[in-house]
Structures are given as structure tokens and as C-alpha cells.
Design a protein that fits this description.
It contains eleven helices and 15 strands. By secondary structure, the chain is α/β, with parallel strands linked by helices. Strands 3-2-1-6-7-14-15 form a seven-stranded mixed β-sheet, with helices on both faces. Helix 4 links the parallel strand 6 and strand 7. The longest helix has 22 residues. 6-O-phosphono-beta-D-fructofuranose binds next to strand 12.
Length: 381
């Protein structure tokens, strides 16, 4: 019988964090289980910052379903087995602080920890579970790239924000006869770009999984021009790269040490400049950035997050630890965290969203790719 559980949010925030937290708390309360928020991810676990969450009068988990962000914070320091510690003199060291975290879990009496996060968080959750901690993961990320699930919470909201941006870029682009480029997030996966391009009626979508030829993109725009369409809308994933070229890195954090240290960004501007030169049309780039992560979740994300939260608590009640709540063939299910990390098995090694991670990327067989091509979206190949 479990009596006390902790919720830990990790990685970049998404819309839907709070909806998951609320669903876990409500399901826990209905089953006589006490819930605590672990403040600021692993930071709170190390500092023993735990906050009671409840939906009783005056409780912290009331009214949070539509709220963006995370009421318990989140940390991008996602790997406790290789944790970034800033020393007093400002120097940075990476240490394995898992034993300290496990001691705190035991001392406070948590029977289970829910890890809300992307592949990096689920990797360290799996590492925790090999050390005997009861963990259950919930797949979060706007990038939609967590292995073994068909969709992560936060993704749909990001796509909706990108779609709205495309609608707006359409009208200004059409007015001024310009090429409007929209750079969206997604790290090494093109899900946001591809789905937003379909939803927003874009003419081109460039994604990391299909290295592009800029001349093919320019031809698409030229053909539109010949048909009297003097504007075009181009979606570029931040991880898109040209054939025989590299991704554009905005900066490398922490001197390249630790995990999650490569910040992508800048490809939108590069593509806009090249298309301007090749087509003679004016081009403008908009980088959508953190708009994709903030604010209220869509109805879809509220429902998905609620499903995930209740499923995670159900798994805990059934003692099915070391698993990730997933959507498989459209239905709630669970898979082992071992399956989720795939070949990235070494404890404490690479964690965080890196190119070595076991990521779910767009494949050429995906319906979205076929659909995009069928409606004439140029994928740069
Ligand atoms: O993984 C989620 C994500 O929003 C990516 O799409 C983006 O590349 C990255 O996080 C940005 O990270 P940060 O919050 O560290 O700038």
C-alpha cells in the first residue's frame, strides 16, 4: 500500500504540467494517498523542499488546470547522476548526487516519485529505479520526441501556438509579397514544424529528419510566383539542416560539459537570407521561441495531461513501478523505463535531450509526411 508520493517536474516547462499535477493529486486523494510537490525538480529533492499538494479548501492544487508553467517549478539540471554544481568561486563541477537524493526520499517516506519530463528525465528516472527507488514517469515535452509513446503532453499546445503564428504571418506576407519564415522549436525532431505546417497551410516545412536542398525550396517559391502567388510561408524546425551541412547552434552552455548544453537556434534567419537571394523576393524571419511553452494548455492537452496524471497514479496504486505512462494505439498504457531508454543504458551517462538519446523522430513512413506531400508542402528534398 502506498501512502505518500512526490511529484517532480523536470526540464523545460510546457503547458499541461499543472493539469498533470492536479490529476495525480485528485486520483491520490480519492485513494487516500498524500501528495507532495518536489520544488524545482532535482534541486528540491536535494534540498528537501517538499510542499503538500491538495484540492481541499485553500489547497495548492485548486484552480490550476488552465494555468501555464508549473506550480512546483522545474529544473533543467535534469540528471542527478551527473549533476551540475556551481562552486562558491563560480567554477562548475558535475557530480553524482543520486545517493543524497535517495536518502532524502527514504527519510521523507515517499513510496513513489512521479517524474514529469522528457527523455533526459526519464533516463535518470530509470537510473533511479535501478537503485531501488519506486518511480513512474509521465512523458512531457513540446518536442514530442519521447520514445514509446505516440504523444507527449505540451506538444499540442506548442503546435497550436505555431499554427496561430502561421495564420498571422500569412496575412502580413500576402500583403507585402514576402516570404515569411517561422522558426519553431523541437530540438532534433521535426514534429512541431511538420504538424504546424499542415495546420497552418504553410508552403514549405524543413525538419531535421529530412536535410534540405535550398534550391528545391526556392523552386517551390518560384513556381508559386509564376502562378501569381507572390508570397510564401516557410516553417523551419530549429534542428533543420541543409544536405551536407550542420544544424545551427545558438550557443554552447557550460563549455560543452554536462548534458543539454547545445542550444539550437538561428536557422530561420539563414534560410530567409538564402531564399531572398535566390528568389528576389523579400524575406522575413520570425523565431517563435518560448511562446510555444508558456500559457494555458489547449483542450487537447488538458485532457491528455489529465489522462496521463490519473494513469500514473493508477500505476502507482497497482505497484507497477519503473514504468512510463504512454499512449499506444491511441490508448493509455504503460511501458518499462528500460524500453524507453533503449540503448542509452549506462547509468549516469548521457541524459538530457542529446543526439545520443533514444528519441522518437519523424519517419518517412509517417502519415504526417505523406499528408504534407499530398497537399503540396515542400519538405526541401
Ligand atoms: O526540449 C524543449 C525545448 O523547448 C526545445 O524545443 C528547445 O530547443 C529547448 O527546450 C530550449 O531549451 P532552454 O529552455 O534550455 O532554452
Amino acid at each position: 500500500m502506498i501512502k505518500k508520493v512526490g511529484i517532480l517536474a523536470n526540464g523545460g516547462d510546457v503547458s499541461g504540467f499543472n493539469a498533470v499535477i492536479r490529476a495525480i493529486v485528485k486520483t491520490a486523494e480519492n485513494n487516500g494517498v498524500e501528495c507532495y510537490g518536489i520544488i524545482d525538480g532535482y534541486n528540491g529533492l536535494l534540498k528537501k523542499q517538499f510542499e503538500k499538494l491538495s484540492t481541499a479548501e485553500g489547497g495548492e492544487a485548486i484552480g490550476i488546470l488552465p494555468k501555464g508553467g508549473s506550480i512546483i517549478g522545474s529544473s533543467t539540471n535534469a540528471n542527478i547522476f551527473n549533476y551540475k554544481v556551481v562552486k562558491e568561486d563560480g567554477s562548475v563541477q558535475y557530480q553524482d548526487l543520486s545517493e543524497q537524493a535517495i536518502a532524502n526520499i527514504k527519510e521523507f517516506g515517499f513510496d513513489c516519485i512521479f517524474t514529469l519530463g522528457g527523455d533526459g528525465t526519464q533516463k535518470s528516472a530509470r537510473d533511479f529505479s535501478t537503485k531501488g527507488v519506486n518511480v513512474i514517469g509521465v512523458p512531457k515535452t513540446i518536442d514530442n520526441d519521447v520514445a514509446c509513446t505516440e504523444i507527449t503532453f505540451g506538444y499540442n499546445t506548442a503546435v497550436s501556438v505555431a499554427m496561430e503564428a502561421l495564420d498571422r504571418l500569412h496575412t502580413t506576407g500576402a500583403t507585402h509579397h514576402r516570404i515569411m519564415v517561422l522558426e519553431v522549436m523541437g530540438r532534433y525532431a521535426g514534429w512541431i514544424a511538420l504538424e504546424a505546417a499542415i495546420a497552418g497551410g504553410a508552403d514549405v516545412a524543413l525538419i531535421p529528419e529530412i536535410p534540405y536542398d535550398i534550391h528545391k525550396v526556392a523552386s517551390k517559391i518560384e513556381n508559386r510566383k509564376k502562378r501569381g502567388k507572390h508570397f510564401s510561408v516557410v516553417v523551419v524546425a530549429e534542428g533543420a539542416k541543409p544536405k551536407d551541412g550542420e544544424m545551427v547552434v545558438a550557443n554552447v552552455r557550460n563549455n560543452g560539459e554536462g548534458v543539454d548544453n547545445t542550444k539550437l537556434g538561428g536557422i530561420g534567419q539563414v534560410v530567409a537570407r538564402q531564399l531572398e537571394q535566390l528568389t528576389g523576393l523579400e524575406a522575413r524571419n520570425t523565431t517563435l521561441g518560448y511562446m510555444q511553452r508558456g500559457g494555458t494548455p489547449t483542450a487537447f492537452d488538458r485532457v491528455l495531461s489529465t489522462k496521463y496524471g490519473t494513469k500514473a497514479m493508477e500505476l502507482a496504486l497497482q505497484g507497477k513501478f519503473g514504468t512510463l505512462a504512454v499512449i499506444k494505439n491511441g490508448k493509455l498504457d504503460a511501458v518499462s523505463l528500460e524500453e524507453v531508454v533503449g540503448n542509452n543504458t549506462k547509468i549516469g551517462a548521457v541524459s538530457g535531450n542529446t543526439q545520443e538519446s533514444n528519441l522518437r523522430k519523424v519517419t518517412m513512413e509517417d502519415d504526417l509526411v505523406k499528408t504534407a506531400r499530398n497537399v503540396g508542402i515542400n519538405l526541401g528534398d
